[in-house]
């Protein structure tokens, strides 16, 4: 089984970007930990872009590539991107939204997610641990389907 781990803008700066909010681990550290944790259960493909269009294109490609589901940290696009929401909805792949910080305890504009209504669930506020929780939740969802 193949899953897509998709990361949005500025997550390439993890480890140095506001470490008091996002932690000191790099995105590569997080991806490697998830790949190692789930290597016996699935293949994890991963992609990060600061470009909304590239993320939309990768969501479309996930369906064509035979991915069974998506774990996405849309980052700032969570709160602004109808395009990402529509891309997720259009490919009809189960998707779990993940955030390092608790978006519901942050600034008001960060508390709304365009992605949540088309996701099977959302995990936020557990730092890098949330990525593993999101993959596990997606695998559990796929097993029940």
* Helix content percent band: 25-40%
**Total number of strands:** 5
Biggest sheet: strands, sense, closure? 5 strands, parallel
Overall, the morphology is: globular
What is the rounded distance between the termini? 14 Å
Looking at CATH, the homologous superfamily is Dehydroquinase, class II
User: Rounded to an integer, what's the Rg over CA atoms?
Assistant: 14 Å
By DSSP (H or I, 4+ residues per run), the number of helices equals: 5
CATH architecture: 3-Layer(aba) Sandwich
Number of domains: 1
Task: Write down the CATH class.
Answer: Alpha Beta
Q: Tell me the strand percentage band.
A: 15-25%
- Briefly note the structural class of the backbone: alpha/beta
How confident is the prediction overall: mean pLDDT?
95
What can be said about this structure in brief?
With 145 residues, the protein is of the alpha/beta class. The chain has helices at 19-22, 27-38, 52-64, 82-91, 129-144; strands spanning 2-7, 43-48, 69-73, 95-99, 121-124.
Structure, described:
The protein is α/β, with parallel strands linked by helices and 145 residues long. It has one domain: Rossmann fold. 38% of the residues lie in helices and 18% in strands. It is built from 5 helices and 5 strands. It has a 5-stranded parallel sheet, sandwiched between helices. α4 links the parallel β3 and β4. 35% of the residues are buried. Substrate binds at residues 73, 79, 86, 100-101, 110.
């Amino acid at each position: 089984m193949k899953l897509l781990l998709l990361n949005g803008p500025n997550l390439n700066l993890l480890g140095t970007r506001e470490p008091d909010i996002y932690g000191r681990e790099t995105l590569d550290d997080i991806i490697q930990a998830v790949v190692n944790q789930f290597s016996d259960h699935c293949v994890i493909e991963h992609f990060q872009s600061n470009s909304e269009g590239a993320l939309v294109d990768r969501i479309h490609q996930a369906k064509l590539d035979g991915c069974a589901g998506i774990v996405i940290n849309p980052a700032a696009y969570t709160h602004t991107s109808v395009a990402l929401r529509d891309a997720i909805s259009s490919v009809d792949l189960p998707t779990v939204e993940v955030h390092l910080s608790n978006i519901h305890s942050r600034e008001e504009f960060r508390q709304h997610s365009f992605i949540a209504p088309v996701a099977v669930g959302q995990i936020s506020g557990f730092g890098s641990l949330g990525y593993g929780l999101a993959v596990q939740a997606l695998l559990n969802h796929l097993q029940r389907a």
